[in-house]
Amino acid sequence: MHTRALIVLCFLVLCLSLSTVTAAKSPLIKGNVISNKSLKSVVASTSEVGPTFVNKMPNGGAAVAKAAMPDSVKLLIGAGGIYSAFLYYGSLQEDVFRYTAADGTQFKQAWLLQVLEALANVIVGGIGMQLTGATKGIPKKMFAVSGFTQVSAKAFTSLALANGLSFPVATLAKSGKMVPVMIGSLLLGGASYSVREYLQVAAIIAGTAIVSMGKKKGAGAPSSVMGVTFILLSLVMDGVTGGVQKKLKAETKKVGISPKPYDFMFWTNVFMCLTAIVISGGLGEVTSGLSYITSNPEIMSKIIKFALCSAAGQSFIFFTIANFDPLVCTTVTTTRKIFSVLLSIFLKGHQLSGQGWGGIALACGGILAEMEGKMNKAKKA
């Protein structure tokens, strides 16, 4: 059943790419998919795929898509695809690091996992880039830095799971990625935040800590210290990524280039893949990981589906932001995280005390408040 669902997702991704090509040929959209003069760049962040640059289609372009497909249908496809791909993605990621082979060993090769995931995204991004037309003259240096920081953030999240941190706690913690961004901005100067923004972040941090303490104690408590360390490192890399991507946006604007979504997807994942190959090779994860995967067909199947879901999810994000306001996508991805946490608790056997459920409510409240704050800012803009 899961395999069939994945095939449907891949088919929809192909349809999304083809619909982008159709839009690109419309006389109302000059140049490539979107007129460079009316281009608006935004950043869409997801805990699974990392921050990704995308381009918002202007109202004139939306009118073209509207004639071909009703907005309600497009929203159903976009939101449904994001939910389907990333809910399954999160479930598979948790399964990969909870899997125990017959000999009692577990999969620990987080960097090899990033090689396979990035490779799937490179393939899909490359196909999409060829269909929509590649942008020439893109500065690759900043993509290399962005690729390094993004893949590091993702690998550290996987290592947190591999070292005992539960999926619900890891997901909630990653929702607090604004923390390192705020700290960096404050230390570097020139940034100011409202009391509400501080309270939102505090709610997410406090809620996550309460959930972690609200779990029943188990034999894995010592390794969870390493898990917490890795998730903190992941958040730091998220903060660095935010700064790098702002610089990347400025670099492309300076040279008068407006890369399209699949340009960003392809080049970012190329450097993510190369970084992961070097690190996994240096750590000896390539041989040990491939040996483990080939010896355990069950986990091989999960990893393949995991990588495909990542690529499919990014394509649905691009589709949604190209046809709607970026906040629509933010709403979908934000609520998806909450559902991922709840599904993990109910389906994977996590047991929480009343205190733990209180932490869930507090953290989710902070996440939703942050989303509402972004929506209010957009209305005032």
From TrEMBL:
It is found in: Membrane. SUPFAM superfamilies: Multidrug resistance efflux transporter EmrE (SSF103481). It comes from the Eukaryota. It holds the Pfam family UAA. It is a multi-pass membrane protein. The keyword Transport applies. The chain crosses the membrane at residues 225-244, 264-283, 303-324. Residues 1-23 form the signal peptide. The keyword Transmembrane applies. GO terms for molecular function: UDP-galactose transmembrane transporter activity; UDP-glucose transmembrane transporter activity. Keywords: Membrane, Signal, Transmembrane, Transmembrane helix, Transport. GO terms for cellular component: endoplasmic reticulum membrane; Golgi membrane. PANTHER family: SOLUTE CARRIER FAMILY 35 MEMBER B, SUGAR PHOSPHATE TRANSPORTER DOMAIN-CONTAINING PROTEIN. This is Uncharacterized protein. The lineage of its organism: Eukaryota, Sar, Stramenopiles, Ochrophyta, Bolidophyceae.
